[in-house]
Write a structure and sequence with these properties.
The protein is α+β, with helices and mostly antiparallel strands. It has a single domain, classed as Cytochrome p450, CATH 1.10.630. The chain has a five-stranded mixed sheet. Helix 7 runs parallel beside helix 16 and helix 9 runs antiparallel to helix 11. One of its GO terms (molecular function) is iron ion binding. Belongs to the cytochrome P450 family. One of its GO terms (cellular component) is membrane. Its cofactor is heme.
Protein backbone atom coordinates (compact mmCIF):
# COMPACT_ATOMS: atom_id res chain seq x y z
CA UNK A 1 0.00 0.00 0.00
CA UNK A 2 1.36 3.39 -0.96
CA UNK A 3 1.41 5.72 2.05
CA UNK A 4 3.41 8.46 0.34
CA UNK A 5 0.44 10.65 -0.50
CA UNK A 6 -1.20 10.54 2.96
CA UNK A 7 2.18 11.05 4.64
CA UNK A 8 2.93 14.00 2.39
CA UNK A 9 -0.47 15.48 3.20
CA UNK A 10 0.18 15.04 6.92
CA UNK A 11 3.66 16.57 6.63
CA UNK A 12 2.33 19.49 4.61
CA UNK A 13 -0.45 19.99 7.14
CA UNK A 14 1.99 19.94 10.06
CA UNK A 15 4.27 22.37 8.23
CA UNK A 16 1.36 24.70 7.58
CA UNK A 17 0.26 24.46 11.21
CA UNK A 18 3.81 25.22 12.35
CA UNK A 19 4.08 28.21 10.02
CA UNK A 20 0.66 29.44 11.12
CA UNK A 21 1.61 29.13 14.81
CA UNK A 22 4.89 30.94 14.14
CA UNK A 23 3.06 33.69 12.27
CA UNK A 24 0.53 34.05 15.10
CA UNK A 25 3.30 34.29 17.66
CA UNK A 26 5.19 36.93 15.70
CA UNK A 27 2.12 39.00 14.90
CA UNK A 28 0.80 38.67 18.45
CA UNK A 29 4.12 39.87 19.86
CA UNK A 30 4.25 42.73 17.38
CA UNK A 31 0.65 43.69 18.07
CA UNK A 32 1.21 43.53 21.81
CA UNK A 33 4.31 45.67 21.56
CA UNK A 34 2.53 48.33 19.54
CA UNK A 35 -0.95 48.19 21.01
CA UNK A 36 -0.17 47.56 24.67
CA UNK A 37 2.84 49.79 25.15
CA UNK A 38 2.45 52.05 28.18
CA UNK A 39 2.21 55.70 27.03
CA UNK A 40 5.44 57.63 27.47
CA UNK A 41 5.97 61.39 27.13
CA UNK A 42 8.46 62.66 24.61
CA UNK A 43 11.70 64.33 25.60
CA UNK A 44 13.66 61.35 26.94
CA UNK A 45 17.41 62.02 26.96
CA UNK A 46 20.18 59.43 26.61
CA UNK A 47 21.24 57.87 29.92
CA UNK A 48 19.12 60.08 32.22
CA UNK A 49 15.81 59.48 30.44
CA UNK A 50 13.08 61.81 31.69
CA UNK A 51 14.96 62.83 34.82
CA UNK A 52 15.39 66.41 33.60
CA UNK A 53 11.59 66.86 33.65
CA UNK A 54 11.58 66.55 37.45
CA UNK A 55 14.11 69.29 38.17
CA UNK A 56 13.29 72.67 39.69
CA UNK A 57 11.43 73.82 42.79
CA UNK A 58 7.99 72.63 41.72
CA UNK A 59 6.79 69.59 43.75
CA UNK A 60 7.13 66.29 41.89
CA UNK A 61 3.43 65.48 42.29
CA UNK A 62 2.50 68.64 40.37
CA UNK A 63 5.06 67.99 37.63
CA UNK A 64 3.75 64.45 37.21
CA UNK A 65 0.18 65.78 37.21
CA UNK A 66 1.06 68.12 34.33
CA UNK A 67 2.53 65.19 32.39
CA UNK A 68 -0.67 63.21 33.04
CA UNK A 69 -2.70 66.00 31.43
CA UNK A 70 -0.80 65.31 28.20
CA UNK A 71 0.04 61.59 28.39
CA UNK A 72 -3.00 60.27 30.22
CA UNK A 73 -3.65 58.87 33.72
CA UNK A 74 -1.26 55.92 33.29
CA UNK A 75 2.14 56.54 31.76
CA UNK A 76 5.76 55.47 31.94
CA UNK A 77 8.96 57.41 32.61
CA UNK A 78 12.57 56.33 32.46
CA UNK A 79 14.63 57.73 35.32
CA UNK A 80 18.22 56.69 34.81
CA UNK A 81 18.29 52.90 34.97
CA UNK A 82 14.78 52.65 36.42
CA UNK A 83 11.44 52.40 34.68
CA UNK A 84 8.56 53.93 36.65
CA UNK A 85 4.80 54.01 36.10
CA UNK A 86 2.67 56.88 37.33
CA UNK A 87 -0.95 56.16 38.26
CA UNK A 88 -3.29 59.17 38.34
CA UNK A 89 -6.80 57.71 38.08
CA UNK A 90 -8.94 55.57 40.36
CA UNK A 91 -9.52 52.94 37.64
CA UNK A 92 -5.81 52.12 37.32
CA UNK A 93 -5.33 52.44 41.10
CA UNK A 94 -8.02 49.81 41.62
CA UNK A 95 -6.31 47.48 39.14
CA UNK A 96 -3.00 47.93 40.97
CA UNK A 97 -4.29 47.42 44.52
CA UNK A 98 -6.76 44.58 43.90
CA UNK A 99 -5.86 42.30 40.99
CA UNK A 100 -2.11 43.02 41.23
CA UNK A 101 -1.89 43.74 44.95
CA UNK A 102 0.46 40.84 45.76
CA UNK A 103 2.66 41.36 42.69
CA UNK A 104 3.11 45.06 43.55
CA UNK A 105 3.45 44.57 47.31
CA UNK A 106 7.19 45.10 47.70
CA UNK A 107 9.12 48.36 48.03
CA UNK A 108 11.99 49.69 45.98
CA UNK A 109 15.32 50.00 47.77
CA UNK A 110 16.18 53.70 47.99
CA UNK A 111 18.71 55.80 49.89
CA UNK A 112 16.14 57.11 52.39
CA UNK A 113 15.25 53.56 53.40
CA UNK A 114 18.88 52.50 53.60
CA UNK A 115 20.19 55.40 55.66
CA UNK A 116 17.16 56.51 57.70
CA UNK A 117 15.12 53.30 57.72
CA UNK A 118 17.65 50.91 59.28
CA UNK A 119 18.49 49.42 55.89
CA UNK A 120 14.82 49.14 54.88
CA UNK A 121 13.83 47.45 58.14
CA UNK A 122 11.30 50.21 58.88
CA UNK A 123 7.80 48.81 58.42
CA UNK A 124 6.64 51.10 55.62
CA UNK A 125 9.81 50.55 53.55
CA UNK A 126 10.47 46.87 54.24
CA UNK A 127 10.42 44.52 51.23
CA UNK A 128 7.47 42.16 50.97
CA UNK A 129 8.14 38.86 52.72
CA UNK A 130 7.96 37.05 56.04
CA UNK A 131 9.70 39.83 57.99
CA UNK A 132 7.18 42.40 56.73
CA UNK A 133 4.26 40.07 57.52
CA UNK A 134 5.54 39.58 61.07
CA UNK A 135 5.96 43.32 61.61
CA UNK A 136 2.49 44.05 60.23
CA UNK A 137 1.01 41.41 62.51
CA UNK A 138 2.77 43.00 65.47
CA UNK A 139 1.49 46.45 64.52
CA UNK A 140 -2.12 45.46 63.85
CA UNK A 141 -2.54 43.13 66.85
CA UNK A 142 -0.37 44.71 69.54
CA UNK A 143 -0.15 48.42 68.72
CA UNK A 144 -3.04 49.55 66.54
CA UNK A 145 -5.94 47.28 67.40
CA UNK A 146 -9.16 48.90 68.62
CA UNK A 147 -8.61 47.47 72.10
CA UNK A 148 -5.09 48.88 72.29
CA UNK A 149 -6.17 52.29 71.02
CA UNK A 150 -8.92 52.36 73.63
CA UNK A 151 -6.49 51.37 76.38
CA UNK A 152 -4.06 54.16 75.41
CA UNK A 153 -6.73 56.77 74.81
CA UNK A 154 -5.78 58.63 77.98
CA UNK A 155 -2.29 59.25 76.57
CA UNK A 156 -3.67 61.04 73.50
CA UNK A 157 -6.12 63.04 75.60
CA UNK A 158 -3.45 64.15 78.08
CA UNK A 159 -1.22 65.32 75.22
CA UNK A 160 -4.08 67.33 73.72
CA UNK A 161 -4.91 68.81 77.13
CA UNK A 162 -1.30 69.88 77.64
CA UNK A 163 -1.11 71.29 74.11
CA UNK A 164 -4.21 73.46 74.58
CA UNK A 165 -3.05 74.60 78.00
CA UNK A 166 0.29 75.74 76.59
CA UNK A 167 -1.43 77.65 73.78
CA UNK A 168 -3.70 79.36 76.32
CA UNK A 169 -0.77 80.33 78.53
CA UNK A 170 1.17 81.60 75.52
CA UNK A 171 -1.76 83.78 74.50
CA UNK A 172 -1.97 85.23 78.02
CA UNK A 173 1.72 85.98 78.46
CA UNK A 174 2.95 85.91 74.83
CA UNK A 175 6.62 85.51 75.73
CA UNK A 176 6.12 82.38 77.80
CA UNK A 177 8.34 79.46 76.77
CA UNK A 178 8.09 75.97 78.22
CA UNK A 179 11.48 74.30 78.23
CA UNK A 180 10.22 71.07 79.73
CA UNK A 181 9.45 69.60 76.30
CA UNK A 182 12.97 70.36 75.14
CA UNK A 183 14.29 68.31 78.04
CA UNK A 184 11.96 65.45 77.14
CA UNK A 185 12.89 65.69 73.47
CA UNK A 186 9.46 66.75 72.21
CA UNK A 187 10.66 69.78 70.28
CA UNK A 188 13.80 68.00 69.20
CA UNK A 189 11.90 65.08 67.67
CA UNK A 190 9.60 67.55 65.92
CA UNK A 191 12.57 69.35 64.37
CA UNK A 192 14.23 66.10 63.33
CA UNK A 193 11.03 64.71 61.78
CA UNK A 194 10.48 67.92 59.84
CA UNK A 195 13.98 67.61 58.42
CA UNK A 196 13.37 63.90 57.78
CA UNK A 197 10.29 64.72 55.65
CA UNK A 198 12.24 67.34 53.71
CA UNK A 199 15.31 65.21 52.98
CA UNK A 200 13.18 62.20 51.99
CA UNK A 201 11.84 64.23 49.08
CA UNK A 202 15.27 65.16 47.69
CA UNK A 203 16.94 63.54 44.70
CA UNK A 204 19.73 61.06 45.48
CA UNK A 205 21.81 60.11 42.39
CA UNK A 206 22.30 56.48 43.46
CA UNK A 207 18.51 55.93 43.47
CA UNK A 208 18.47 56.12 39.67
CA UNK A 209 22.12 55.34 38.91
CA UNK A 210 23.16 52.55 41.34
CA UNK A 211 26.80 52.73 40.18
CA UNK A 212 27.00 56.18 41.81
CA UNK A 213 26.71 54.68 45.32
CA UNK A 214 30.20 55.96 46.08
CA UNK A 215 28.81 59.54 45.99
CA UNK A 216 26.58 58.90 48.98
CA UNK A 217 29.00 60.63 51.33
CA UNK A 218 27.81 63.93 49.78
CA UNK A 219 24.57 65.91 49.57
CA UNK A 220 21.22 64.47 50.74
CA UNK A 221 22.67 61.04 51.54
CA UNK A 222 25.14 62.66 53.96
CA UNK A 223 22.27 64.51 55.66
CA UNK A 224 20.27 61.27 55.85
CA UNK A 225 23.12 59.53 57.66
CA UNK A 226 23.38 62.38 60.19
CA UNK A 227 19.63 62.42 60.78
CA UNK A 228 19.61 58.67 61.27
CA UNK A 229 22.21 58.94 64.05
CA UNK A 230 20.38 61.80 65.79
CA UNK A 231 16.97 60.09 65.61
CA UNK A 232 18.46 56.80 66.76
CA UNK A 233 20.15 58.48 69.71
CA UNK A 234 16.94 60.21 70.81
CA UNK A 235 14.79 57.10 70.42
CA UNK A 236 17.34 55.02 72.30
CA UNK A 237 17.18 57.52 75.18
CA UNK A 238 13.41 57.06 75.40
CA UNK A 239 13.72 53.27 75.23
CA UNK A 240 16.36 53.26 77.98
CA UNK A 241 14.06 55.35 80.20
CA UNK A 242 11.26 52.83 79.75
CA UNK A 243 13.61 49.90 80.34
CA UNK A 244 14.80 51.48 83.59
CA UNK A 245 11.21 51.88 84.73
CA UNK A 246 10.59 48.19 84.05
CA UNK A 247 13.78 47.16 85.87
CA UNK A 248 12.68 49.15 88.93
CA UNK A 249 9.27 47.49 88.75
CA UNK A 250 10.87 44.04 88.68
CA UNK A 251 13.08 44.97 91.63
CA UNK A 252 10.12 46.17 93.68
CA UNK A 253 7.46 43.62 92.69
CA UNK A 254 9.40 40.68 91.34
CA UNK A 255 8.01 41.06 87.80
CA UNK A 256 6.74 43.75 85.45
CA UNK A 257 3.40 42.19 84.55
CA UNK A 258 1.49 44.75 86.58
CA UNK A 259 3.24 47.77 85.11
CA UNK A 260 0.89 50.18 83.38
CA UNK A 261 1.45 50.45 79.64
CA UNK A 262 1.52 54.22 79.24
CA UNK A 263 2.50 54.42 75.58
CA UNK A 264 3.57 52.45 72.50
CA UNK A 265 7.12 51.97 73.80
CA UNK A 266 5.80 50.14 76.86
CA UNK A 267 3.69 47.95 74.60
CA UNK A 268 6.65 47.14 72.34
CA UNK A 269 8.90 46.22 75.26
CA UNK A 270 6.18 43.98 76.65
CA UNK A 271 5.77 42.26 73.28
CA UNK A 272 9.51 41.69 72.94
CA UNK A 273 9.61 40.12 76.41
CA UNK A 274 6.81 37.78 75.32
CA UNK A 275 8.89 36.70 72.26
CA UNK A 276 6.21 37.72 69.79
CA UNK A 277 8.39 36.89 66.79
CA UNK A 278 9.00 33.41 68.13
CA UNK A 279 5.27 32.80 67.74
CA UNK A 280 4.82 33.94 64.47
CA UNK A 281 5.83 55.65 58.25
CA UNK A 282 1.18 62.83 60.67
CA UNK A 283 -0.70 64.89 59.95
CA UNK A 284 -1.35 68.58 59.97
CA UNK A 285 -4.41 70.22 58.48
CA UNK A 286 -4.13 73.21 56.15
CA UNK A 287 -7.41 75.14 56.31
CA UNK A 288 -8.36 76.67 52.98
CA UNK A 289 -11.60 78.33 54.01
CA UNK A 290 -12.31 80.38 57.12
CA UNK A 291 -15.98 79.94 56.30
CA UNK A 292 -15.65 76.17 56.72
CA UNK A 293 -13.85 76.75 60.02
CA UNK A 294 -16.70 78.92 61.29
CA UNK A 295 -19.29 76.32 60.26
CA UNK A 296 -17.34 73.62 62.11
CA UNK A 297 -17.28 75.80 65.24
CA UNK A 298 -21.01 76.46 64.95
CA UNK A 299 -21.56 72.71 64.85
CA UNK A 300 -19.38 72.29 67.95
CA UNK A 301 -21.35 74.97 69.80
CA UNK A 302 -24.63 73.33 68.82
CA UNK A 303 -23.75 69.67 69.47
CA UNK A 304 -21.34 70.08 72.41
CA UNK A 305 -21.56 73.64 73.72
CA UNK A 306 -18.91 75.68 75.50
CA UNK A 307 -19.52 74.49 79.05
CA UNK A 308 -17.46 71.30 78.69
CA UNK A 309 -14.71 69.90 76.49
CA UNK A 310 -15.32 67.65 73.51
CA UNK A 311 -15.37 63.94 74.39
CA UNK A 312 -14.84 60.83 72.28
CA UNK A 313 -18.56 60.17 72.23
CA UNK A 314 -19.21 63.57 70.60
CA UNK A 315 -17.17 62.94 67.44
CA UNK A 316 -19.85 60.80 65.78
CA UNK A 317 -22.28 63.74 65.94
CA UNK A 318 -19.82 66.23 64.42
CA UNK A 319 -20.50 65.33 60.79
CA UNK A 320 -19.38 68.65 59.31
CA UNK A 321 -16.08 68.52 61.19
CA UNK A 322 -15.53 65.01 59.80
CA UNK A 323 -16.25 66.38 56.32
CA UNK A 324 -13.67 69.16 56.84
CA UNK A 325 -11.04 66.55 57.73
CA UNK A 326 -11.94 64.38 54.74
CA UNK A 327 -11.76 67.33 52.37
CA UNK A 328 -8.41 68.42 53.79
CA UNK A 329 -6.98 64.93 53.25
CA UNK A 330 -8.41 64.89 49.73
CA UNK A 331 -6.59 68.07 48.72
CA UNK A 332 -3.52 67.45 50.88
CA UNK A 333 -3.02 63.70 51.53
CA UNK A 334 -0.24 62.81 54.02
CA UNK A 335 1.91 61.69 51.09
CA UNK A 336 0.83 63.32 47.81
CA UNK A 337 3.04 60.78 46.03
CA UNK A 338 2.40 57.44 47.69
CA UNK A 339 5.42 55.37 48.73
CA UNK A 340 6.46 53.59 45.51
CA UNK A 341 5.63 49.94 44.93
CA UNK A 342 7.78 47.58 42.86
CA UNK A 343 6.68 44.65 40.71
CA UNK A 344 8.15 41.37 42.02
CA UNK A 345 7.28 39.61 38.76
CA UNK A 346 5.93 40.37 35.30
CA UNK A 347 2.27 41.35 35.29
CA UNK A 348 -0.45 43.18 33.38
CA UNK A 349 -2.15 46.35 34.54
CA UNK A 350 -5.24 46.69 32.43
CA UNK A 351 -3.95 45.71 28.97
CA UNK A 352 -0.41 46.94 29.57
CA UNK A 353 2.52 44.58 30.13
CA UNK A 354 4.59 45.54 33.19
CA UNK A 355 8.01 43.85 33.56
CA UNK A 356 9.48 42.77 36.88
CA UNK A 357 11.33 45.54 38.72
CA UNK A 358 9.11 48.36 37.46
CA UNK A 359 8.35 50.96 40.13
CA UNK A 360 4.79 52.23 40.50
CA UNK A 361 3.94 55.66 41.90
CA UNK A 362 0.33 56.54 42.74
CA UNK A 363 0.00 60.31 42.37
CA UNK A 364 -2.67 60.88 45.03
CA UNK A 365 -2.47 64.65 44.58
CA UNK A 366 -3.69 64.22 40.98
CA UNK A 367 -5.97 61.25 41.62
CA UNK A 368 -7.88 63.15 44.34
CA UNK A 369 -8.45 66.08 41.97
CA UNK A 370 -9.98 64.10 39.11
CA UNK A 371 -12.71 66.31 37.56
CA UNK A 372 -14.51 63.16 36.40
CA UNK A 373 -15.08 62.27 40.05
CA UNK A 374 -15.07 65.55 41.98
CA UNK A 375 -16.87 68.72 40.93
CA UNK A 376 -14.66 71.83 41.28
CA UNK A 377 -11.80 69.53 42.34
CA UNK A 378 -9.35 72.30 43.31
CA UNK A 379 -11.77 74.04 45.67
CA UNK A 380 -12.07 73.34 49.40
CA UNK A 381 -15.68 72.16 49.74
CA UNK A 382 -16.33 69.94 52.78
CA UNK A 383 -20.00 69.83 51.78
CA UNK A 384 -19.12 67.38 49.00
CA UNK A 385 -18.75 64.67 51.68
CA UNK A 386 -22.25 65.37 52.98
CA UNK A 387 -23.92 64.97 49.57
CA UNK A 388 -24.17 62.22 46.97
CA UNK A 389 -20.71 62.92 45.55
CA UNK A 390 -18.78 61.73 48.60
CA UNK A 391 -21.36 60.77 51.22
CA UNK A 392 -20.34 57.11 51.33
CA UNK A 393 -16.60 57.67 50.88
CA UNK A 394 -14.41 56.61 53.82
CA UNK A 395 -10.75 56.03 54.68
CA UNK A 396 -10.77 52.25 54.21
CA UNK A 397 -8.98 52.31 50.85
CA UNK A 398 -11.88 50.62 49.07
CA UNK A 399 -13.12 53.86 47.50
CA UNK A 400 -10.30 54.17 44.99
CA UNK A 401 -11.14 57.75 44.09
CA UNK A 402 -10.14 58.63 47.68
CA UNK A 403 -7.16 56.79 49.20
CA UNK A 404 -5.21 59.25 51.41
CA UNK A 405 -3.78 56.34 53.43
CA UNK A 406 -3.20 54.04 50.47
CA UNK A 407 -4.93 50.79 49.57
CA UNK A 408 -4.21 47.08 49.48
CA UNK A 409 -1.91 45.12 51.74
CA UNK A 410 0.65 47.96 51.89
CA UNK A 411 -1.89 50.55 53.02
CA UNK A 412 -1.23 52.37 56.30
CA UNK A 413 -2.14 50.06 59.23
CA UNK A 414 -2.51 53.09 61.51
CA UNK A 415 -5.56 54.56 59.77
CA UNK A 416 -7.84 54.21 62.80
CA UNK A 417 -5.23 55.69 65.13
CA UNK A 418 -4.54 58.60 62.76
CA UNK A 419 -8.21 59.44 62.24
CA UNK A 420 -9.02 59.25 65.96
CA UNK A 421 -6.08 61.52 66.79
CA UNK A 422 -6.88 64.01 64.01
CA UNK A 423 -10.59 64.22 64.78
CA UNK A 424 -10.12 64.79 68.51
CA UNK A 425 -7.23 67.25 68.08
CA UNK A 426 -9.07 69.35 65.49
CA UNK A 427 -12.32 69.25 67.48
CA UNK A 428 -10.61 70.40 70.67
CA UNK A 429 -8.65 73.14 68.87
CA UNK A 430 -11.70 74.55 67.10
CA UNK A 431 -13.79 74.40 70.25
CA UNK A 432 -11.12 76.10 72.35
CA UNK A 433 -9.88 78.85 70.03
CA UNK A 434 -10.89 81.20 67.23
CA UNK A 435 -8.39 81.49 64.39
CA UNK A 436 -7.97 84.48 62.09
CA UNK A 437 -5.22 85.77 59.84
CA UNK A 438 -3.55 89.16 60.47
CA UNK A 439 -5.55 91.93 58.80
CA UNK A 440 -7.80 89.31 57.18
CA UNK A 441 -5.09 88.21 54.77
CA UNK A 442 -5.78 85.19 52.56
CA UNK A 443 -3.82 82.04 53.33
CA UNK A 444 -1.33 81.30 50.55
CA UNK A 445 -2.00 77.71 49.49
CA UNK A 446 -0.60 78.07 45.97
CA UNK A 447 3.05 77.38 46.75
CA UNK A 448 4.51 74.35 48.47
CA UNK A 449 8.04 73.53 49.51
CA UNK A 450 10.11 70.44 48.81
CA UNK A 451 9.51 67.27 50.80
CA UNK A 452 7.29 64.21 50.88
CA UNK A 453 4.43 66.00 52.68
CA UNK A 454 4.18 69.28 50.69
CA UNK A 455 5.09 71.77 53.45
CA UNK A 456 3.82 75.32 52.99
CA UNK A 457 6.40 77.53 51.30
CA UNK A 458 4.94 80.56 53.09
CA UNK A 459 4.70 80.05 56.88
CA UNK A 460 1.16 80.33 58.22
CA UNK A 461 0.56 83.34 60.47
CA UNK A 462 -2.57 83.30 62.60
CA UNK A 463 -4.13 85.15 65.50
CA UNK A 464 -5.64 82.97 68.23
CA UNK A 465 -8.41 83.96 70.63
CA UNK A 466 -9.79 81.75 73.43
CA UNK A 467 -13.46 80.74 73.05
CA UNK A 468 -13.99 79.00 76.41
CA UNK A 469 -13.95 80.02 80.05
CA UNK A 470 -10.52 79.97 81.70
CA UNK A 471 -11.21 76.97 83.95
CA UNK A 472 -11.63 74.69 80.92
CA UNK A 473 -7.97 75.28 80.02
CA UNK A 474 -6.75 74.17 83.46
CA UNK A 475 -5.98 70.46 83.60
Amino acid sequence: MDFSSPIQIILYSLALLFLYALWRKITKKTTKTKKFKVPEPSGSWPLIGHLHLLTGQKPACKILASIADESGPFYSLRLGFNRILVVSSWEFAKECFTKNDRVLATRASIAAGKYMGYNNAVFSLAPYGQYWRDIRKLATLQLLSNNRLEALKHVRFSEIDLFLKEIHIYIQYFNYVNDEKDEKGGKRIGKLMKEFMYVSGLFVPSDVFPFLWWMNFLGPAKTMKRLSKELDSLLQTWIDEHKLKRINQIRDDGDCKSIEKEDFIDVMLSVLEDDFFGHLGKTSLKEQSLHALELAQQELDLKVGRERCVQDSDIEKLVYLQAVIKETLRLYPPGPLAVPHEAVEDCYISRYYIPKGTRIFANLWKLHRDPNVWSNPDEFLPERFLANEGKNVDFSGQNFEYIPFGSGRRSCPGINFAIQAIQMTVARLLQAFSFTTPFGQAVDMTHEGIGITLPKATPLEIQITPRLSSELYEY
